[in-house]
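User: I'm writing a tutorial on reading structure tokens. Could you give me a worked example: one chain, its sequence, then its tokens, then a sentence or two explaining what the tokens reveal?
Assistant: Sure. Here is the example chain.
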Amino acid sequence: MDNERNQRRFESVYSKKVRAGKRRTYFFDVRKTKGDDYYLTLTESTRKFNGDGYERHKIFLYKEDFNRFVASLEEVVDYVKTELMPDYDYDEYTRRHEEFERQQALEESGGGGDTKEDTTNNGEVESEDDMSW
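And here are its predicted structure tokens:
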């Protein structure tokens, strides 16, 4: 009985997964407390280089901190984008990820053959291995 209660306690009521390259994934989970309150867990999961499991780092974020957390995150990201690296193409990885997902979907549907290569970027060959972001 206690195990069932603990299992329910840690279940997510909402979850969002963000893949960030081949080795890193972020999870944003809304969890419920015993007192019917909610909090967020932000998890970075990184596959170990030797392929032997994953390393995870978690942040617990409570409702009273949501606004300050989001405001501060936006402020520091904006600072990097406008002050430190204004010429960087921040959409590059989004485009590459979308292209990779399209290619994966094509391969899964049987339309992409056995190769994981795509000819984009002026005829240059781009493979899954190039997506080390």
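What the tokens reveal: Strands lie at 12-19, 24-32, 38-47, 54-62, 117-120, 124-127. Confidence is low (pLDDT under 50) at residues 113-133.
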